[in-house]
Amino acid sequence: MEKVPLIVRLKEVKALSDEVRVFILDLLSKKPMSVHEIAEELRKKGMYKNINTIRYHIQVLKEAGLIDLVATREVKGGVLKYYAAKGKVYPFEVPKDIEEALKPIARQLYEGLKKIVLDLIRNHGDIIVETARKLKPCPYCITKHFAEYVILEALRYALGKVMEDREVRREIDKFKVEEEEPS
């Protein structure tokens, strides 16, 4: 069995263990919103949550590093805070056979990515080690794959930047993917 790296951060896993927080994160990945706007969007989906509950969920997402306070606006009686997701969110069900379907692409990319990773290790080893030293093991780990994690994070960050590049966006936007009807 192939072992595919999976980046799992405990704070994020805990934060996303509640479907309301997943929905809030999805909303905030589209545009900054206030707690009141989030409450309205939740109501539209049949999720009736009071403002204090939503504030709690916002705090959990903030502490997990998934969202940030991005703006404030003075309003009569207080300050309205706007939050936004720190990254893009893909909240959808992944088919069980996705790994099999993507194997031909992975095989094609393998040598090029291997070269990139080796170059990263050889040319930035000092940064990798310095960053890895700052990591703390989770209480459940037996092994410590700190350098691996740092390399995967660097690649994830770089890929995120590439996906937001205008030229790449134009090419991706040419795809029209329709959802399959449930059977």
Overall description:
With 183 residues, this protein is mostly helical. The protein has two domains: 76 residues, Winged helix-like DNA-binding domain superfamily/Winged helix DNA-binding domain (Arc Repressor Mutant, subunit A); 76 residues, no CATH class. The chain contains seven helices and three strands. Strands 1-3-2 form a three-stranded antiparallel sheet. Helix 2 crosses helix 4, helix 3 crosses helix 4 and helix 5 packs across helix 6. The longest helix is centred in the middle third of the chain and has 36 residues. The radius of gyration is 20 Å and the shape is globular. The model has no long low-confidence stretch (mean pLDDT 85).
Question: Brief description of this entry?
Answer:
The chain has helices at 10-15, 19-30, 35-44, 51-63, 98-133, 146-164, 166-173; strands at 33-34, 67-75, 78-85. With 183 residues, it is mostly helical. Strands 1-3-2 form a three-stranded antiparallel β-sheet.
What would you call the shape?
globular
Major β-sheet annotation? 3 strands, antiparallel
Strand share of the residues? 5-15%
Number of domains: 2
Number of helices: 7
Given as residue ranges, the uncertain stretches (5+ residues, pLDDT < 50) are none
Radius of gyration: 20 Å
